[in-house]
Every structure is written in structure tokens, then in C-alpha cells.
């Protein structure tokens, strides 16, 4: 699987992300084709080499003839839907601007369609957003991950509404609930609303560098020289078979609840995208029998899972902690056992199959239809899967 990882140790902006992807191998001509498809004029994109903090980087600089035009979300939606763009470029661009509009609407207390995009640059923001989405399409990344994001803190930046705190309120609206980690680095504004919206729209998750073989590295330069290299780094490569994931463990003790209800609770949690859920028998205070309910989830699903626990159990509180899990790369093969289909799950590490597990429901259906014992179906399915791989 092809992976793109953004290292945001100096924050991120639209031009920095675009420069990093171009430097990492995105085709400039493909990016320009998407930009030329937009029915807007009075802009130019200059791609050049720059140095930031002693490191070479690519600077993607958008120049515009400022017309004073103010576009709202319906204007931008009409612009993007009317352009001949690759479907994924258009969809991701629309998602980016919708995220921006929603964030600005919450900050200013207005409806989404009333938000004007003067605050995020209008024409230059459109070029940055569509350019980044086209660059990502060019890189053909199947998974996008971003690191923790550096931000200035507590200083004031100028805006249409006067001075506002850094990071900008819209940035915090965009990143809350995504699992993105922010950390302070100096007093300058490092992460812009456009940069934050692009990261949320492009990334599958935020977290540590996934296990990958690196094929290319790119550096995108920011406009300013700072005390540290003001760049975004992009790493492109192939995901390795062995994965380390940062997940959340949610637990609660239950000693005053009918245990017959616990299977229903687990079903509800799994339907709410829990990675796994289970119970463990335990002896509680005063010698009472009880259960420990444990749930694995992501940062993005944590709140929804906790809500299910509060709604469906008798608990008065839960505890959460970050944990790391190591998983095998998973794939499926379809086999026939006595004429009946059975899916078989394969678990691999560094290209070697470690586990072969027939899907239970398929195997049970085949056993009932064929009259064979379930364990016989399992054994035949494993043999067929091994023969298919050979």
C-alpha cells in the first residue's frame, strides 16, 4: 500500500503542503491541468527552489491580482462542480472547503453558507486547495497520515475581524476530534486554517510514522524564515506488512447490571466502529461478582464509544488510556468447499503468511448445507487457501 506521511514540525499551510508534495514527486503538469480547469483568472503559480534553515525545499507560491471578490461556499461549490477535474480531486476539494466553512461558521456564529472566504484568501486558497488535492492524486497515495502539528501560542494575529489568538480559532475547530496532536513551538502562527482543513480532508489519521519503506522525501517551504527550518516534510513509500497502531483502551467495572445484557452492549459497541470489545469476569468490592467491560477504539471514535457505554450500561464512569497494538497485514481469499463458498482470512508479516482463518459464518453455512462437520469444513478451507496461495 502506497503511503504519504506529512511531518508537520513547523505547522502547515496550503503552499507548504503543495510544495512538499511537488518536491516528493507529484507531477507539476498534472497539478497545473487541474488548476487551469478552474474558471478563474488573475492568478499564477510559481514553483522554485528555496532554502529554509539551511535546508533545500520547494516553494509553491501563488500570486493573485486581488479583485476584492468575496466568495461563499455555494460560489466555490459551483466553481468546483463546473470544472473538468478528476473526481477525487473535486470531491476532496469540496470536502476541504466544506470543513473550512463549517469551522468559520462555528467561530463567528453564522450559517455555513453565510461564510465568506476572504478570511482564508479566496482565490489563493482555491489554488492552494485544488493544487494540493491534484498533487495528492498524482502521488497515488492510498493512505495519508500526518504527525503532530506545531503551532505558535498565545500571540495575536491580524484578521478581518481584528486581532485573534494563535492558533486561530478556526484551526482549533477543524482539528478537534480528529486525533491530531498540537504542540507549541515558538510564538509565530505556524498552522493556518487552510493548512488544517487540507490535513483533515487528506489524512486518514493523525499519529506516528507508520512502518514503511521510503521511496521519496519532499520538503515544502513556508513564506518566512524562522528560527527553525520553516518547512513541511512529505515521506512517500510502501507500507510494511507489520503495523503498530496507537489506539484507545476504554474500560469500566460493572457489578450491578444483568449480565444477559452484555452481549447486546458489545454488539452496539462493534456497530459503533469499536476495533474490539470484550468482558472479563472479576470479583468487585465486598466480594461481589462483576465484569470488566473493555473496548478498543481510535481517537476519532472514542467519544461515540463512551456514549454507548453510558447509554447501555449501569456504569457511572469509564477510564481511558492510550495503548499500542501490533497487527498483521490482512487479506482474503475465496475458496470452494464441497461446492460452497468460504472466505479465508490470511495474516501476513514481512510477506510471510502467519495465520489462515476461515470465516466462521461462511464455514457454518457450508457445514449446514453439505452435512459435513464444521471442523471438516475448516480443515478443507485451510487446505484450499494454502493451495490457492501456492
Low-confidence stretches: none
Give the ordered list of helices and strands: EHHEEHHHEEEEHEHEEEEHEEHEEEEHH
Overall spatial form = globular
- Structural Rg: 25 Å
Number of helices: 11
Instruction: Report the span from N to C terminus.
Output: 22 Å
Structural class: alpha+beta
Quantity of strands, as a count = 18
- State the strand order across the main sheet: 9-4-1-11-10
Task: Tell me what the structure shows.
This protein is α+β, with helices and mostly antiparallel strands. It folds into 3 domains: 2-241, no CATH class; 244-327, Transcriptional regulatory protein pf0864 domain like (Alpha-Beta Plaits); 329-389, Ubiquitin-like (UB roll) (Roll). The chain contains 11 helices and 18 strands. Strands 9-4-1-11-10 form a 5-stranded mixed β-sheet. It has a 4-stranded antiparallel β-sheet with strand order 13-14-12-15, with helices on one face. Strands 16-17-18 form a 3-stranded antiparallel β-sheet. A hairpin with a 2-residue loop joins strand 2 and strand 3 (55-64). Helix 4 (87-108) crosses helix 5. The model has no long low-confidence stretch (mean pLDDT 89).
Secondary-structure blueprint:
Layout: E1 2-7, H1 14-23, H2 28-36, E2 43-52, E3 55-64, H3 73-81, H4 87-108, H5 123-139, E4 143-146, E5 149-151, E6 156-159, E7 162-165, H6 169-175, E8 182-184, H7 193-202, E9 205-206, E10 212-221, E11 231-239, E12 243-254, H8 262-271, E13 276-283, E14 289-297, H9 302-312, E15 319-327, E16 329-337, E17 340-349, E18 352-358, H10 360-370, H11 374-389
Parallel strand pairs: 1-4, 4-9, 5-8
Antiparallel strand pairs: 1-11, 2-3, 6-7, 10-11, 12-14, 12-15, 13-14, 16-17, 17-18
Amino acid at each position: 500500500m502506497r503511503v504519504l506521511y506529512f511531518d508537520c514540525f513547523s505547522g502547515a499551510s496550503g503552499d507548504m503542503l503543495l510544495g512538499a508534495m511537488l518536491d516528493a514527486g507529484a507531477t507539476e503538469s498534472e497539478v497545473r491541468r487541474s488548476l487551469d480547469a478552474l474558471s478563474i483568472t488573475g492568478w499564477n503559480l510559481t514553483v522554485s527552489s528555496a532554502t529554509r534553515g539551511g535546508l533545500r525545499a520547494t516553494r509553491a507560491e501563488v500570486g493573485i491580482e486581488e479583485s476584492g471578490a468575496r466568495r461563499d461556499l455555494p460560489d466555490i461549490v459551483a466553481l468546483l462542480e463546473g470544472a473538468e477535474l478528476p473526481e477525487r480531486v473535486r470531491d476532496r476539494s469540496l470536502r476541504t472547503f466544506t470543513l473550512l466553512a463549517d469551522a468559520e461558521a462555528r467561530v463567528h456564529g453564522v450559517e455555513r453558507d453565510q461564510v465568506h472566504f476572504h478570511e482564508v484568501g479566496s482565490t489563493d486558497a482555491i489554488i492552494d486547495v485544488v493544487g494540493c488535492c491534484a498533487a495528492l492524486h498524482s502521488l497515488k497515495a492510498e493512505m495519508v497520515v500526518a504527525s503532530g502539528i506545531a503551532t505558535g501560542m498565545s500571540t495575536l494575529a491580524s484578521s478581518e475581524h481584528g486581532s485573534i489568538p494563535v492558533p486561530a480559532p478556526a484551526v482549533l475547530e477543524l482539528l478537534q476530534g480528529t486525533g491530531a496532536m498540537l504542540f507549541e513551538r515558538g510564538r509565530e502562527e505556524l498552522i493556518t486554517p487552510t493548512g488544517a482543513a487540507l490535513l483533515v480532508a487528506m489524512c486518514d489519521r493523525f499519529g506516528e510514522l507508520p512502518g514503511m519503506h521510503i521511496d521519496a522525501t519532499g520538503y515544502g517551504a513556508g513564506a518566512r524564515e524562522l528560527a527553525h527550518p520553516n518547512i513541511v516534510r512529505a515521506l512517500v513509500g510502501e507500507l510494511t506488512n507489520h503495523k503498530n497502531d496507537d489506539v484507545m483502551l476504554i474500560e469500566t467495572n460493572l457489578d450491578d447490571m444483568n449480565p444477559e445484557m452484555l452481549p447486546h452492549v458489545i454488539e452496539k459497541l462493534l456497530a459503533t466502529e469499536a476495533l474490539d470489545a470484550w468482558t472479563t469476569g472479576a470479583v468487585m468490592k465486598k466480594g461481589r461478582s462483576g465484569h470488566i467491560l473493555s473496548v478498543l477504539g481510535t481517537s476519532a471514535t472514542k467519544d461515540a464509544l463512551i456514549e454507548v457505554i453510558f447509554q447501555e450500561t449501569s456504569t457511572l464512569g469509564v477510564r481511558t488510556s492510550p495503548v499500542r497494538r501490533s497487527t498483521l497485514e490482512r487479506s482474503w481469499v475465496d475458496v470452494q468447499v464441497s461446492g460452497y463458498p468460504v472466505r479465508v482470512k490470511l495474516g501476513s508479516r514481512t510477506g510471510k503468511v502467519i495465520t489462515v482463518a476461515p470465516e466462521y459464518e461462511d464455514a457454518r453455512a457450508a457445514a449446514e448445507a453439505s452435512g459435513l462437520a464444521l471442523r471438516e469444513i475448516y480443515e478443507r478451507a485451510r487446505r484450499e487457501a494454502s493451495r490457492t496461495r501456492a
